[in-house]
Design goal:
By secondary structure, the protein is mainly α. It contains 21 helices and 2 strands. It folds into 2 domains: 178 residues, Growth Hormone, Chain: A (Up-down Bundle), CATH 1.20.1250.20; 198 residues, MFS general substrate transporter like domains (Growth Hormone, Chain: A), CATH 1.20.1250. Helix content is 70%, strand content 1%. It has a two-stranded antiparallel sheet.
């Protein structure tokens, strides 16, 4: 990717803050800003941004904090409701359905709902979503609420997630320029893993010490705090679609234009295709974690360790690649990281053929899954490339398409692995996942290498200013 270049002196309001988070006096900057990694300065573009530089951007702090609070609250509520439904019905199917309801809006209407992030001011989408979710979750916490009403309220709460996440992702790309966006991407991914663990653990603690209603009230409080934080911390910006001259179009027309953008631009097809194909095969073994654990050793309780190994590696890889690798090195590491993520899966599946079964084999599998997780850091340069290729006014819709497909292929991979595990050994399914995945990613990797990476000298995280060639027109 091309390093950030300098532009002529810009008009800056008195005491304005440049994109790096530094303040300047005077109405006009006499020289380009020299702040480190400034999008318009001449700082060390070959060095990775620091976490301090990321958090120095005032608007990122509420965006990051709201994501952290929402993730903890969501996982907490998911545990509470799943247990509550199981206690009331003694039905494992209904409990599983309760857990899965929160993912349905992404699968059934993710691209449509995400288009709201491009039709409305993004700060309004974020704040309004959190206020609505706080009210709905508080209603769910009322003792004695009928079960059908609980499930309906849960579905309504989940409907706000695609628009919120699309607006958050798009606005993060708007407020962070240069390498700060890549570092923020790794930081958000790591934090999400930790927040999920906190949410699950806190949910279990509250259920043992208090009640499901208490857990739900705490979840409602996280949404309320997030709404206040966003209200106080975000600038008021107009709707991005209006900036692109698309005001007056219907929601479905906006959704269709987002789909055409992703499908019509060769580089976006390659980026999204690589993301989906890798996720399909890397996540497939999660669907057979329990039988695979039993094949390795007679301890079903160790399934959690098997599931946690890959995310743990992804968290460490995110720190190493996002924080300590310069931007140019991240780009060069994309292909090796993708191959590492699938190669580790392949080798983990081969372990029983070499070590048979037992504690040693299980530990080696955990290590290999952790190594495969390190390769998951390929999402950082992929995310940056994605933002480069998508104009700001289309980012909400484009994120919606990418994430909806991601949820779909992850579920499909788990189902296919489960079907295959009824026919052959689980370890054989894991081997096939890694081997077929290594072959399948060749096509999108080659397509990505052939596609253009944006104009030379553009800002590494903000290149596209209009639809790419082959994308939707403004008409």
């Amino acid at each position: 990717m091309a390093p950030a270049g300098s532009v002529p002196p810009a008009r800056i309001p008195r005491h304005a803050t440049c994109p790096s988070g530094h303040r300047h006096r005077g109405r006009r900057a006499p020289v380009p800003c020299r702040c480190p990694l400034s999008a318009h300065g001449t700082g060390p573009a070959d060095a990775p941004a620091t976490y301090g530089q990321v958090f120095a951007v005032g608007e990122f702090r509420p965006l990051f904090g709201s994501h952290l609070l929402s993730t903890i609250g969501d996982e907490l509520a998911r545990v509470a409701l799943t247990v509550l439904v199981y206690q009331r019905t003694d039905s494992a199917v209904l409990a599983a359905l309760t857990f899965a309801i929160s993912y349905l809006p992404w699968l059934l209407g993710g691209p449509v709902l995400s288009a709201l992030a491009d039709r409305l001011p993004r700060h309004q989408v974020l704040i309004g979503s959190d206020v609505a979710r706080a009210v709905l979750v508080a209603a769910m916490a009322v003792p004695g609420t009928p079960l059908p009403l609980l499930l309906l309220l849960l579905l309504l709460v989940s409907l706000f997630a695609p628009a919120f996440e699309a607006a958050r992702s798009a606005l993060t790309a708007d407020v962070l320029e240069g390498d700060r966006y890549a570092v923020a991407t790794s930081l958000t991914g790591i934090t999400q893993q930790v927040a999920q663990l906190i949410g699950f653990g806190l949910g279990g603690l509250l259920l043992t010490q208090l009640s499901a209603s208490a857990a739900l009230l705490l979840n409602a409080a996280t949404f309320a705090v997030s709404a206040v934080w966003l209200t106080l911390g975000l600038r008021r910006r107009p709707a991005p679609v209006q900036d692109a001259g698309e005001a007056g179009r219907s929601l479905l027309q906006d959704t269709a234009s987002g789909l055409r953008l992703v499908a019509g631009a060769a580089r976006l097809r390659a980026i999204v295709g690589l993301l989906w194909v890798a996720a399909l095969f890397v996540n497939a073994p999660e669907g057979i974690a329990a039988p695979w654990t039993l094949e390795l050793q007679d301890a079903l309780g160790a399934t959690g360790l098997l599931l946690a190994a890959n995310p743990a590696g992804a968290a460490v890889g995110g720190v190493l690649v996002g924080r300590f690798c310069p931007p140019a090195l991240r780009d060069r590491l994309l292909t090796p990281l993708v191959l590492l993520s699938l190669g580790g899966i392949l080798l983990a599946g081969l372990v029983p053929l070499v070590l048979d079964r037992g504690t040693t084999a299980f530990v080696v599998v955990l290590v290999l899954l952790f190594v495969a997780g390190l390769g998951g850091a390929c999402s950082i340069p992929l995310n940056v490339a994605f933002v480069q290729a998508v104009p700001s006014a289309y980012r909400g819709r484009a994120f919606g398409v990418a994430v909806a497909g991601l949820y779909g292929v992850q579920g499909l991979g788990a189902v296919l692995a489960g079907v295959a595990a009824d026919l052959v050994r689980p370890s054989t399914v894991v081997v096939l996942s890694g081997a077929v995945g290594l072959v399948a990613v060749v096509v999108p990797l080659l397509a990505l290498r052939r596609s253009a990476s944006g104009p030379a000298g553009g800002d590494p995280a903000h290149v596209a200013s209009g639809p790419p060639a082959g994308g939707p027109s403004q008409a």
